[in-house]
Amino acid sequence: MKIVILNKPYDVLSQFREDEKHLTMSAFVDDPDLRLAGRLDMDSEGLVFLTDHGGLNQFITNPANKKYKTYLVQVDGDVTEDALAQLRKGVELKDGMTLPAQAYKVDEPEWLWERDPPVRFRASVPTSWIEISICEGRNRQVRRMTAAVGFPTLRLIRTKIGSIDLVQLGLQPGETKEIEPLLYPDFKDVPAAEPYRSRSYVKKPGGTGGKPIHQKKNKDGTTKKKSGTPRIWQMEESEKPRRKTNGTTRPNTKSRGRRAR
């Protein structure tokens, strides 16, 4: 299992496909075997996992595994203890109640880098910082949670996933570092990577899912390309399958077109 940590800068899309307006992950990582595990929104910054392990993303985002993700959040206004208590209890969102979060008011850290462009400054409205940890993975969840308790998010930096700490790794925006999974207890329970399972098979209770699809290999180790099954209209007349009969079937002489007048 290979794991690479990226400090994703602001205004970078969490995808490898090129984009005309924004930078993507391909500007910082050039490894075709790596895939994202736990994406970040374009306007969020910080720790991103890239791995060649197929099941790591589900392992990290599944609340049952209790892999807490920690964020440093700058909010609009001086956050109150009542708002923090609501975050710790759980917040009602449009897609349901959130699980209890760990939330604390903190000072702006000295290690924090400048954002480009910076957050809009308003002298009449103070800002404050929260460290919040959640074990869910809903879309824009932290931003929606702080807005629900009356303090919209201005800036969001993911600093930790489990025991992987971006600050300890010392990564600046755009920098990457490959880590050794065996050195972290978070990965001792990660299920073994399995081959892709066909979605045409129904998963039965207590079963293991669909049948694995094993790709055929050439002698040189490369994957064989599927030639595809030709359709009947693509076949020569001699290649078309013939209908088997017992010799008594009458030929179909009925006209399939419109009746002649």
TrEMBL record:
Its EC number is 5.4.99.-. It is an enzyme of class 5 (isomerase). The lineage of its organism: Bacteria, Pseudomonadati, Pseudomonadota, Gammaproteobacteria, Moraxellales. CDD domains: PseudoU_synth_RluE. Keywords: Isomerase. It comes from the Bacteria. The keyword Isomerase applies. Residues 195-261 are annotated as: Disordered. This is Pseudouridine synthase. Residues 3-148 form the Pseudouridine synthase RsuA/RluA-like domain. The keyword Isomerase applies. GO terms for biological process: pseudouridine synthesis; rRNA processing. Pfam families: PseudoU_synth_2. Belongs to the pseudouridine synthase RsuA family. One of its GO terms (molecular function) is catalytic activity, acting on RNA. SUPFAM superfamilies: Pseudouridine synthase. It comes from Acinetobacter towneri. InterPro entries: PsdUridine_s_RsuA/RluB/E/F_cat, PsdUridine_synth_cat_dom_sf, PsdUridine_synth_RsuA/RluA, PsdUridine_synth_RsuA/RluB/E/F, PsdUridine_synth_RsuA/RluB_CS, RsuA_PseudoU_synthase, TruA/RsuA/RluB/E/F_N.
